[in-house]
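Deviations from the work plan: none for this task. Representative record:
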Amino acid sequence: MDLYEHQARQLFEEHGILVPRAEVTDSPGRARDIARRLGGRVVVKAQVRTGGRGKAGGVRLAEDPEAAERTAREILGMNIKGHQVRTVMLAQPVDIESEFYVSYVLDRAAGRFLAIASAEGGTEIEEVAALRPEAVARVPVDPAEGVTPQKAAEIVRAAGLPPRSADVLVRLWQVLIREDALLVEVNPLVRTAQGRLMALDGKVTLDGNARYRQARWDGQETSHDDPLEAAAAAKGLNYVKLEGEVGVIGNGAGLVMSTLDVVAGSGARPANFLDIGGGASARIMSDGLSVVLSDPAVRSVLVNVFGGITACDAVADGIVRALDAVRPTKPLVVRLDGNNAARGRAVLAERAHPLVHQAATMDDAARLAARLAHIS
Amino acid sequence: MAVFLTEESRILVQGMTGAEGIRHTRRMLAAGTNVVGGVNPRKAGLAVAFDIPGTEGRGSTPRTVPVFGSVREGIEATGADVSVVFVPPAFARAAVLEAADAGIGLAVVITEGIPVHDSVAFCAHAADRGTRVIGPNCPGLISPGRSNAGIVPADITGPGSIGLVSKSGTLTYQLMHELRDIGFSTCVGIGGDPVVGTSHIDCLAAFEKDPDTELIVLIGEIGGDAEERAAAYVRDHVTKPVVGYIAGFTAPEGRTMGHAGAIVSGSSGTAQAKKKALEAAGVQVGDTPTDTARLVLARLAERATPSDVTHS
């Protein structure tokens, strides 16, 4: 889960990293009041979980409270790369003397975190990394030791950062560990004209698997833009809305992803990804089918299950239950193999619903579902 | 010989007394796996009775598996060398650290939903202690007819000449099913999390050395660059034929597709890039699981007609 800038900023502040004074609002009127409190001149920043806000016009300087109100009104409601701006942050401007870049990212290949730091670039770090890779230091961090003051000094030396930034590096590591983050980035870290080191902007990505021990972000979870995604999430289903017309339900992330590809290869477009998971019950199958069938873009549904832990007869029972509860008007193609497949196929054959078709293989099932999506 | 497991592998199950642990220990026993004990500090000294269904309806066999208070006690009492971990995410880190400290050779972590910081910690610690970790969030590994450490259904196929390594559990089953007539030396599900203990490369190296493995199937998916690195390894070190499959061509950028590690970020981690890298390394890549199985059969048929026959 990516945090908004103001949430990342809050974590930095809690861990003792200096940040500019700032407040968040969703109202232009309050933006004016905030600007007044902050001294009149403020930076107005769109709060969206995507990069490139500046280029899109989502970050602007306002000279006085009236300008802040006007600017907030213009930015609120903007669409930046598909993200609607619901709140803005107003921050006190800072006299920047120099800009740096620091982050901790997961190095999947090495199975550990890596410090990435540069004395150049700040906001232009990606260009610096591409054009002059030697200007960007990459220092692996031993997971057992973490970032000690000694380690921080090593990173500082490797990147050519001001010596005092070692303290920021140690604190940023604490953010990563204590908050169960997968990424923490300060960009830019600036030295102000007064000689202070300050995090001007930042990004934090939290680990969804750690939510059980990081309960503070519950309820601040991504508001699902799509109502079907919200409905699926409420039922605990692993669902992603896509752009096509064939609904896809299966068990196991790999098999479902593969099914999407096979559908695409059959000349149709998948309408969604829905993984009912391992050991799915009839109820989960039925819930999943209800969610997919309530998508108006769906013209046919493909259920592809290879029963390992999941029993195919439970899946078939769930389909039958959903047929009675949802009364679908769209065709369903079902492919069952593996654990209790024969019993599952028999359950569906016995029900003999006119809209339910069985297929022998995944490829056959995808072809049939694609064809039915085009003729129904 | 099989990869990472043998008939002699003696298996402890951490979390055996939980619902999942009980269910899958029964399945492992039914597959002929030598499960020698469970671990649960609160139930040490007890034993769990299993009724193992016989093959082809030939009645059932009772089996009793003792529960030990720690992995160390389990090893001392039974000579166990493999641990399969079913404990819940909040306790998985401690469980794997304990197994590594007790000197287990192989820890197979089935648990799903472990925080990445925990995986980073226990993978690093285990590597320092010489313990191989498979997983987390994986189906484990099976050498059909010999041993089954994890949750892979044992009845899909039998022993044979194919080695399989996969990020995805269900695609492992799908390919085992497609190639059931040939059979497998070992199938390893390495898991789809961002940090896993055993990589595609580790498995490629083991299959290359394994005399029972004639051909290798490599299954990948979007996210990270493990497949690209595996491709480079195949090019430089693998002499056996390798057939690949990648899932996630239709996955949109920035959305996690089920597995925690399956996400396309910007231009990196795409299925297209992975396929290209594998093909450049001489790996044939199938378009669908069925197509992949067809490529495997064709490669095996080529090998069955040796080109170096001496004509008299």
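The longest strand of chain B covers residues 60-68.
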